[in-house]
Amino acid sequence: MKHTISILVENKFGVLTRISGLFSAKGYNIESISVGPTEDPTISRMTIVTNGDDDQIEQIIKQLNKLIDILKVVDLTNEPFVERELALIKVKVNPHTRSDVIEISDIFKAKVVDIGPTTLTVEVTGKSDKITAMINMLAPYGIVELARTGVVALKREFKGEVYSSKEIKMLQRKTKQKNQNLKEPPQNMSSSDEKTK
């Protein structure tokens, strides 16, 4: 089973080496690893995606908690969490296929960030399965180069129902309309009422 593990570490030399060394010593493959500073520059957040059953991952987390410089370890797998990944994909194009690749990019809400005579580079963000789906769609055209950041993830704080992006947009539209209605004067106001104002 795939697990997404979030780790807060002190921003010190050698921490990444010790953590990746622990995984390799236990024989676990790291599918992706991303690390960067947090709101506190002395602390970094590491997001690791790996495979293993619950007992194995529990053992890994116990071992991680024993390492110095590690502040907090959370297995996000069974928690509601937000995850994103970024990929840059350079694709072969010619005058006949260029518009096809741009159309695929539009469908996946990707951005064209570089155009050359024979290549086109697109930037796509989203969940890992979205990134993989786009790569699979572009593969027949010929992928020249590919760079993926790996997953970054944060636990959701909202405890109620999790809305889809479509539902969120609908709620935003309703709120905007409600705010506009509050600003507009009533339509049935007579001219005498307006004069008294």
TrEMBL record:
Molecular function as annotated in GO: acetolactate synthase activity; acetolactate synthase regulator activity
**One Gene Ontology CC term in the entry:** cytosol
The alphabetical list of record keywords is: Amino-acid biosynthesis, Branched-chain amino acid biosynthesis, Transferase
Q: What class of enzyme is it?
A: transferase
Q: Which InterPro entries match?
A: Acetalactate_synth_ssu, Acetolactate_synth/TF_NikR_C, Acetolactate_synth_ssu_C, ACT-like_dom_sf, ACT_dom, AHAS_ACT, AHAS_small-like_ACT
Residue ranges occupied by any ACT domain in the UniProt entry: 4-78
For region Disordered, the annotated ranges are 169-197
Q: In which pathway does it act?
A: Amino-acid biosynthesis; L-valine biosynthesis; L-valine from pyruvate: step 1/4; Amino-acid biosynthesis; L-isoleucine biosynthesis; L-isoleucine from 2-oxobutanoate: step 1/4
Keyword Nuclease, does the record have it? no
Please give a single GO biological process term from the UniProt record.
isoleucine biosynthetic process
Question: Which stretches are tagged as biased composition: Polar residues?
Answer: 178-191
- E.C. numbers: 2.2.1.6
Q: Which domain of life is it from?
A: Bacteria
The catalytic activity, as recorded, is: 2 pyruvate + H(+) = (2S)-2-acetolactate + CO2
Q: Which Pfam families does the record cross-reference, listed alphabetically?
A: ACT_AHAS_ss, ALS_ss_C
Q: Write out the function statement from the record.
A: Catalyzes the conversion of 2 pyruvate molecules into acetolactate in the first common step of the biosynthetic pathway of the branched-amino acids such as leucine, isoleucine, and valine.
Describe, as the record does, how this protein assembles with itself and its partners. Dimer of large and small chains.
> What family does this chain come from, according to its entry?
Belongs to the acetolactate synthase small subunit family.
What is this protein's record name? Acetolactate synthase small subunit
Q: Which organism is it from?
A: Candidatus Kryptonium thompsonii
For this protein's source organism, the top of the classification is: Bacteria, Pseudomonadati, Candidatus Kryptoniota, Candidatus Kryptonium
